[in-house]
Each structure stands twice: as C-alpha cells, then as structure tokens.
C-alpha cells in the first residue's frame, strides 16, 4: 500500500496500478487544464488492461457541493474526458443521501484501459 497526499492535478507520481477509483473528486475540477492533468495521471498510473472507476454527480445532480462549483457528467461526458485509451464498460446510476437527508444523483462509470496491441 502506498499513501499519497497531493493535489491530484499537481506533479505527483505513483507506481502503476490495476485500479483507479475516484469517488466524488473529478467533478470538482471545473478547469479544463486541471482535468487534462488529472487524465494525464490516470494514463500514467493505470496499467494496460487496468480498470478506472469514476463516480461523479450526474446531469441531474447538484451544481455545487461544499459551497464549491462542480461539473456534472453523463457516461459519454466522462468517456470524452478520459479519451480513446479507455473503453466504457458499465455505468450505474445511484442516489446518495447526505447526512442531512438531501438526495444527490451520482453516476459510476467503469472503464478498461486498452491492453497493449
Ligand atoms: C466529496 S469529497 C469525497 C471524498 C471521498 N472520495 C468520499 O467519497 O468520501 C471530495 C474530495 O475531493 C478532494 N479534492 C478536491 N479537489 C482535489 C484536488 N485537486 N486534489 C486532491 N483532492 C481533491 C477534497 O479534498 C475532498 O476530500
């Protein structure tokens, strides 16, 4: 186990991983350059044949969280952000209940990185 505390859009590195699982982080990246840096880390980190699972607010989810603006995605939107290296395998919709009882629509998208040719 390797624990890294970092700005996900910053210059950190990680040994190759089989699975990248993001729950409710990517949707906070409202700047396209930050998203591109995040995706760069995904490409660096996830092994060929590896899995990427990203859970974000869905199109009918909140447009702010913790008083911060967020981006909302459908599966095609997440796929477009990750690019052609990753193939969308599965999408699951979920409604998260906050401690105060509010409903938040999420979408979980699972991708596989193309294996080597
Ligand atoms: C809604 S919380 C989700 C936390 C956890 N993944 C979960 O599902 O319980 C959003 C998290 O995104 C993190 N976050 C937002 N922008 C980030 C960034 N640029 N780099 C690293 N973490 C970030 C925040 O620190 C916060 O912990």
Give your account of this protein's structure.
This protein is of the alpha+beta class and 117 residues long. The chain has helices at 32-45, 75-82; strands spanning 17-23, 46-57, 64-65, 68-69, 86-97, 103-113. The chain has one domain (29-113): Vaccinia Virus protein VP39 (Rossmann fold). It contains 2 helices and 6 strands; from the N terminus they run E-H-E-E-E-H-E-E. The strands form 2 sheets. It has a 4-stranded mixed beta sheet. It binds S-adenosylmethionine. S-adenosylmethionine binds next to loops.
Instruction: Tell me the strand order in the biggest sheet.
Output: 1-2-6-5
CATH architecture: 3-Layer(aba) Sandwich
Beta percentage is: 35-45%
CATH class: Alpha Beta
- Residue windows where pLDDT falls under 50 for at least 5 positions: none
- Structural domain count: 1
The CATH homologous superfamily name equals Vaccinia Virus protein VP39
Principal-axes geometry comes out as globular
Oligomer: single chain
| Total strands | 6
Coarse structural class: alpha+beta
Ions, cofactors and other ligands present here are: S-adenosylmethionine
| Biggest sheet overview | 4 strands, mixed
Order of helices and strands: EHEEEHEE
- Mean pLDDT over all positions: 96
Alpha plus pi helix count: 2
> How helical, in percent, are the residues?
10-25%
Relevant terms:
117 residues; alpha+beta; Rossmann fold; four-stranded mixed sheet; two-stranded antiparallel sheet; 2 helices; 6 strands; globular; binds S-adenosylmethionine
């Amino acid at each position: 186990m390797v624990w890294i505390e970092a700005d996900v859009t910053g210059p950190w590195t990680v040994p190759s991983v089989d699975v990248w699982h993001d729950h409710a982080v990517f949707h906070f990246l409202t700047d396209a350059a930050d998203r591109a840096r995040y995706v760069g880390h995904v490409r660096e980190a996830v092994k060929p044949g590896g899995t990427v699972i990203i859970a974000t607010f869905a199109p009918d989810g909140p447009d702010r969280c913790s008083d911060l603006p967020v981006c909302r995605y459908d599966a095609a939107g997440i796929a477009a952000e990750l690019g052609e290296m990753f193939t969308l395998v599965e999408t699951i919709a979920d409604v998260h209940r906050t401690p105060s009882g509010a409903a938040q629509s999420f979408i979980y998208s699972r991708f596989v990185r193309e294996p080597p040719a």
